[in-house]
Amino acid sequence: MMDKIIPLVLVVLGLGIGLGAGFMLRPAAVEASVEDGDNAAASATEHDYVKLNNQFVIPVVEAGRVASLVVLSLSLETAVGGQEAVYAKEPKLRDSFLQVLFDHANTGGFRGSFTDSDNLIVLRRSLLEAGQRVLGSMLSDVLIIDIMRQDA
Length: 152
Hints:
The protein contains 4 helices and 4 strands; from the N terminus they run αβββαααβ. By secondary structure, it is an alpha+beta fold. It is elongated.
């Protein structure tokens, strides 16, 4: 009889210890993942994204004629509540952005492999600097949403 009870007691004891250990360790892991999720959610809501209403159309001129057209759509990453300021200054922003885009086109930025990451990094940085001259530090990034080149 004891030969049948000892293995059964060991199984029940092992199961109890395993469940107890799992129960004791589980809340700490859940709390850490919840805190990480809360931090991620908080950092995701620290910015507003404002899509500029109209696309930008930039001619690429070669040998005195329009060789292609580049069409871009931009969104701006701003501080929370920045949408009104962006739309209030949109004409000034568009003018500044167009100047940057024309300069980029004139220096060959839209020729060849124009979607190369090095070209786009330079373009984004230039757009951000121009946008910050208009909006100040409330602008944290310029996002290129769409980009297309139509060769003539």
